[in-house]
Specification:
The chain is an all-alpha fold and about 120 residues long. The chain has a domain at about 45-120. Helices cover about 80% and strands about 0% of the residues.
């Protein structure tokens, strides 16, 4: 795969992700020290769990999208290797790393849910 086609593929993936998953941002503004104290004193275990839960959901979603891209890349590299052992080994490593990354992300999400069930 040439450098130009790799750039085009990466550009297409980013455009696809941007169109399908629009990210909206919100900006919080702290006006005084009293607002900051009220914010910190309002933190509870439930709110902290909700924050970890939301972050782990996003990490799982993004991690699975990256894993699909990595698996597709490994598959394309596997078929494009045409018997070249070094390229074949690289494709296998990519698939193995994608598998480990997927397992790690799913495990992290599972730990967050398990802690929420245990303490919630």
């Amino acid at each position: 795969m040439s450098s130009n086609s790799k750039r085009q593929l990466i550009s297409c993936v980013f455009v696809f992700l941007f169109v399908c998953f629009r990210v909206t941002t919100a900006h919080a503004q702290v006006r005084s020290d009293d607002d900051l104290r009220n914010l910190v004193s309002g933190l509870t275990a439930v709110k902290i769990y909700e924050a970890f839960d939301a972050v782990s959901k996003w990490a799982l979603l993004i991690g699975l999208m990256i894993a699909v891209i990595a698996y597709a890349s490994a598959g394309i590299a596997f078929f494009a290797s045409r018997g070249d052992q070094t390229r074949l080994a690289t494709a296998k490593k990519t698939a193995i790393y994608a598998t480990w990354g997927t397992a790690l992300i799913v495990l992290a999400r599972g730990i967050v849910v398990l802690i929420g069930k245990f303490f919630g």
